[in-house]
Amino acid sequence: xxxxxxxxxxxxxxxxxxxxxxxxxxxxxxxxxxxxxxxxxxxxxxxxxxxxxxxxxxxxxxxxxxxxxxxxxxxxxxxxxxxxxxxxxxxxxxxxxxxxxxxxxxxxxxxxxxxxxxxxxxxxxxxxxxxxxxxxxxxxxxxxxxxxxxxxxxxxxxxxxxxxxxxxxxxxxxxxxxxxxxxxxxxxxxxxxxxxxxxxxxxxxxxxxxxxxxxxxxxxxxxxxxxxxxxxxxxxxxxxxxxxxxxxxxxxxxxxxxxxxxxxxxxxxxxxxxxxxxxxxxx
Length: 283
What we know:
Elements: E1 6-8, H1 11-23, E2 28-33, H2 39-51, E3 54-59, H3 79-88, E4 93-95, H4 99-102, H5 122-125, H6 129-144, E5 148-152, H7 156-168, E6 174-178, H8 198-203, H9 206-219, H10 224-237, E7 241-249, E8 264-272, E9 275-282
Parallel strand pairs: 1-4, 2-3, 2-5, 3-4, 5-6
Antiparallel strand pairs: 7-8, 8-9
Helix pairs in contact: 6-7, 9-10
EC number: 6.3.2.1
Pfam family, one: Pantoate_ligase
GO molecular function: pantoate-beta-alanine ligase activity
């Protein structure tokens, strides 16, 4: 049976644990999470283990990236199951701070990202989101001081924002993206999938099917506009309320008009019942 990871709940405890690893010339990879771990998170941990000799996983449901109308209080929290999964993967340290450790009384400094954070995708519907993400991830990077940080590609705009921030602020962290892990029917794994009713869970696969159809048409030479319009209609016909369904440049997230504009990515966000899902695929 694998040993349980060391659990740090304060910054001094975390720093001591990380310093002990550094004294042994360890390279360190950080996997930031909000808990409610699934196989997608496990894939991030396994990539981290391939890239570094020691792995730190953070579990922190970050209140600053939730709007008052969003699901901070209801966000799934599965601490015992999470620790069991991380122990099975031989994770070295779990960084599990409380809100008071991350945002102590008098906290007054925030990171306000631009560039990919203002691409007109998630930021159009959740204008608070990337400021909260950038601030908490910036703190995680300075607290854990990792060589690598692993993020899933499912949150593609987030990956681009964090990569830009680490580069712009010279944080000394190499940010790596890991491929989206999907259920057998194509639905991207997400902690929020537990909110779906059985009927909604079946319907949710339409997102992936629509993206695949649009991507196939674009690769076959169709113009972007009709290829994307067809996918959007599929999604809406299934009962989703569509926030966006767009193809963008895969590096900059800038709008594109043809396949010649560079590597492309289709990104979607849509609500089914009360559950908002996001996903993306390469074209």
